[in-house]
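Example 3.2
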Amino acid sequence: MTKKYLRLGLLPAGLLLAMNANAATISINFDTGNIDSATLGGAAPNRVTNWNAWGNTTNLTSTVDSAGVATTLTASGTSTNRSQRGNPSGLSNDELIFTSVIDVTSSASVTLSSVPYALYDVYVYMHDESDDRAGSFTIGSTTYYARGIGGSEGVGDPDSSGGGYVLSSDTTQGTGADIDQGNYVLFTGLSDASFTLNMVAVNAGDTINRNKVAGIQIVETIPEPSSALLAVIGVGLGSLRRRR
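Structure, written as tokens:
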């Protein structure tokens, strides 16, 4: 029995750590101070607390992750055209996050630097202005489009229980109703230490272009064990079976 446990101990320590690691998340909302650390938000499985409020300041120089731990991430770029939708008192969770936005009427951009993750995904959330208004979101050479879900402002935003998140994976603008409806887009497999998010208001039938961006999440990606590492586990387990 002792020998069997010793053999398991010979498996690479790094492999065991990778199998038990949990992804971290950094969340940013364009708020002016109404969101507290207990506010939940984000599409599953990234519905987390500790959103960083980036109000009407030039740069965001201090951030924490979903566990409240300080990170190296900073943000710069568009700091104007903040729009606070109504009185946030009485709202909670995702509703509160979607009340404060960057109101893009033409184009805007933000740059996030010193990303602390080797590999990560980026979620970008859009407040539902209406189903005849849309926006585009670009990181690098990848662009996604999303169009409002409801017929009037806020109808297609997530609710306070975290339901109602709708992903748009549309990479073709099309015209009007050709653009997929949704309230967030997702970029996967990013690895650069910094990136720029470009946001553009797209006309989907209305006479006024509006793209109201509610927030961004940077989610660490934990690679699954490779086939080679899984083979190491298989060899170790096979050796134990033969010695029983």
